[in-house]
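Duplicate of earlier report; Ubiquitin-like protease family profile domain-containing protein input re-posted below.
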Amino acid sequence: MKICTEDQQKNNSVEPKGMSTKLRTEDRTSGSSTKRWDHSKNHTYQYRRLNRRNEKKEVVLLDDEDTELLDDEDTEPSKSVDVEIVNIWDKSQIYYPSRTDPETVELTYSDIKCLDPEVFLKSPVINFYIQYLRKSRPCDDLYIFNTYFYSKLEEALSRTGECGSQFSKLRRWWRSVDIFKTPYLLLPIHGQVHWSLVIIFMPAKEIKSGPRVFHLDSLGLHSSDKVFGVIESYLIEEWRHLQKDSSYDIPFSDTIWRHLSRNIHKEKIEVPQQQNDFDCGVFMLYYIDKFIQEAPDDLTGVRPCKFGRKWFSPVEASGLRKRIRVLLIDIFQNAPPSDRNLVSHADDDSEDEEDKGKDTIVIV
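Output:
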């Protein structure tokens, strides 16, 4: 304030840029001179502070007053950069377990968002974890279909008069697997914004029992009768197809095989229930995970596992969401170049010579 001259006060002059220099007025009523701020005008000290800010845009720490004085032009570029970085990383892709695997799962980084709290799991993430679990157990006694199979099966079986031809096309989904000689078949089921699981157990030949079908549902929303009808039709259609091959090695006793449709046992299983509306996919995956850990190599039992409401704690199952998230982020960061498609920046003129030609991965 001391820089203001006596002349400026008297003449109420205006400096360039239209800034008022009147900083105080005289209160004549009291007989004395009282300094009083005039808040109705922009002041010289504010003008000078703004000039200093424009000259030094590299300053990164601003107090509240400085932040309020920044205009929209100063802040807009940073927002655009943030959006661009997020979009670039979201479009990054990996192939799991590898690009050349016949059952590879393609994932983008944005798929991980479905593992946020209170979000429904999506098929790419579920199929990823299914492939991850399949690697933990030999595939000769276990086969897990992906999330798209059941809806395709349901569609093929519903076409009146075309069931046979549609089913023949569908057989490519399990062309490398003899379903009647595979002890455990697992089918994820999706419908009505809900996930449940079917486990098909093929007992040993000496048991003299046909296939046993179990339905596991964490909310009981899917009709078990409808599900059993689809699975039974599936098994019978495949049985009819194999009947045409006289050299086929029958996996059951002759009596069971000849009357297979009457020897398919179906059971709705009591299992731990989810405690919310959004963990059905997580519970379905945990059923698979838990089953793989406990399913016996001995196929002489009536049930392949100790199911029940107390099979595990619901909290334990809900915790799988975080574990899958950590696992996926780690796989994204460490995926080999042959199994990933990364968006890179090639327009940075300031990069060092030794860094040229390398992919730039942006992690937010």
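The chain has a mean pLDDT of 77.

Merging into the original ticket.
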